[in-house]
Amino acid sequence: MIDGIDLETLLWLAGMLVFGGAVTGILAGLFGVGGGAITVPVLFEVFGVLGIEDEVRMPLAVGTSLAIIIPTSFRSFRGHYRKGAVDTGILRKWAVPIILGVLLGSVIARYATPAVFQGAFVIVGGITVTKLLFGRESWRLAEQLPSGNILRLYGMVVGLLSALMGIGGGALSTLVLTLHGRPIHQAVATSSGVGMLISIPGALGYVAAGWGRAGLPPDALGFVSLLGCALVIPTAFLTTQIGVNLAHSMSRRKLEILFGLFILTVCVRFLLAMVM
């Protein structure tokens, strides 16, 4: 993994990962996301500099991101739960469908090309950005969430797409909840719990999906880089509460605009990667 890389470059890359961890933690608390939309691009670039083969570079970034999300999503959820903003009823109903979707996404990850992961970011992110930046209160699919199989289908789709995107599901579940009449603060808070449902089975699934694949670095456990986790997780864990406090100090519209601009930036980054 480090052949041909000098010490100065390695220190710079380590600094990138530590900084990315700090930003990941703030975003996890601020938007109820696991921070994968920042860690995946950062890891993707770092793995490229380290000479990781293109065939495994993107799934390695996604799998490592899901592992990193485990502690950040837990800390984000705990912060929002203490403020009484989490709808635990939705989380209970979504638990099994989300996990099934994540496992399906992990199976797909073993055979998918990098464009599949990047395309998932661009398509889903584009829909989310449109709703957040240009949507109105009247933009709703319904005044409340459906019940039964439709609600379970929502959960499965959130789990599947999140596993392919390497995110904690916050952007997707927030979109679903706000389109069904839930206030943005409650949607963000509840989405922090979705991150826990996605990250644990997702990380384990990527370990299994990448097991024995050629071209992975020595520190990798399947499609999960242990070095990446070791550098990102500590700073992310320390900064999550900052994001939680910021989220509850902002107006609904300001939070929507910031969330939309954040997702738009990520979409542009991966769209460029697909066409270049």
Give a quick set of tags describing it:
mainly alpha, globular, 2 strands
Explained architecture:
The structure is a single chain. The chain has one domain (7-275). The chain is mostly helical. The mean pLDDT is 82. Helix 1 (7-31) crosses helix 3 (54-82), helix 3 (54-82) packs parallel to helix 9 and helix 4 (88-109) packs parallel to helix 8 (184-209). It is built from 10 helices and 2 strands. The longest helix is centred in the N-terminal third of the chain and has 29 residues, at 54-82. 76% of the residues lie in helices and 1% in strands. It has a two-stranded antiparallel ribbon. The chain has helices at 7-31, 36-49, 54-82, 88-109, 114-134, 148-165, 170-178, 184-209, 226-247, 252-275, and strands at 220-221, 224-225.
By secondary-structure content and strand pairing, the structural class works out as mainly alpha
The pLDDT mean sits at 82
Task: Specify Rg, calculated over alpha carbons.
Answer: 18 Å
Q: Helical segment tally?
A: 10
What would a concise description of this structure say?
The chain has 276 residues and is mainly alpha-helical. It has 10 helices and 2 strands. Strands 1-2 form a two-stranded antiparallel ribbon.
